[in-house]
Design brief:
Blueprint: E1 6-11, H1 22-25, E2 32-36, H2 54-65, E3 74-79, H3 81-95, E4 103-107, H4 126-135, H5 141-144, H6 147-165, E5 180-185, H7 198-202, E6 212-217, H8 223-226, H9 228-239
Parallel strand pairs: 1-2, 1-3, 3-4, 4-5, 5-6
Helix pairs in contact: 2-3
């Protein structure tokens, strides 16, 4: 049976799986269909080999969403690594002439040409790797404080970090024509190591000829879980066609 509700296609952060956004999803109204896409090597796909390149991850995502986007409007939501994957996935969608998203809703990452990583973390010894992940707020605290979970997440996180570190940004010849909504935690913003400047955040406006709206909320990299209901409300408004016009173009 076809589900013709407008969809929210959600792409998790590094190490994430289909349960990563449960705190947000529970606030999504029933007239919308939230779908969190899972990459190989985690969750229900745990037995599949991990992918080490952004292009490979994007191709896998594309194959999963093609059947989902034919019969309804949809928004792509991504947090952190999911934001980068959502950006590259959208480029592929445009290139292939597929039905385009009505909006991109991205949290937790500066523009695609920016990286908070000043050095390769995926090559570090295990304990040093987790120290770096903690420093940049790369996983929720409840996971970082559980050794058993860290052992489970280590190969997944290492492969995801390698993919991010090896990513090469290429600006599009023509920007997207659909709007974008960018939201970050106030504690992520600043100058210096492991921070994102406002300039790097606002670089997203170069990626679309439509509105690009920016918002800062209280909190660190995982501010989305402190504001789960607010994030759900914003995404839901956009998914049903409510346009939030940017005040800073």
């Amino acid at each position: 049976m076809k589900d013709n509700r407008n969809k929210i296609i959600a792409l998790p952060f590094a190490g994430g799986n289909k349960y990563s956004f449960n705190k947000i999803e529970k606030y999504i109204p029933k007239n919308l269909n939230w779908i969190t896409i899972e990459s190989p090597g985690r969750g229900n796909r745990f037995k599949e080999g991990l992918l080490l390149k952004v292009d490979e991850l994007v191709d896998d995502l594309l194959n999963q969403i093609i059947p989902l986007i034919k019969d309804s409007d949809y928004v792509i939501y991504g947090h952190s690594m999911g934001t980068l994957l959502g950006y590259e996935l959208s480029k592929k969608i445009v290139q292939l002439g597929l039905k385009q998203p009505t909006c991109l809703f991205f949290t937790g990452r500066g523009g695609p040409g920016f990286s908070r990583f000043t050095s390769k973390k995926s090559i570090l010894p295990t304990d040093d790797f987790w120290k770096e992940v903690e420093k940049i707020g790369g996983l929720p605290k409840e996971i970082l404080e559980c050794r058993e979970l860290l052992d489970l997440f280590y190969p997944i996180m290492k492969s995801d970090f390698q993919a991010i570190e090896d990513y090469n940004y290429t600006m599009m010849e023509e920007p997207f024509t659909f709007p974008m909504y960018i939201c970050m935690g106030k504690e992520e913003i600043g100058e210096g190591q492991e921070k994102t400047s406002l300039t790097d955040m606002k670089a997203w406006k170069n990626e679309t000829s439509s509105d690009c709206t920016f918002e800062l909320l209280e909190g660190d990299h995982f501010f989305i879980f402190q504001h789960a209901e607010t994030i759900a409300q914003r995404i839901s408004q956009i998914a049903v066609g409510y346009v939030i016009h940017s005040q800073d173009r």
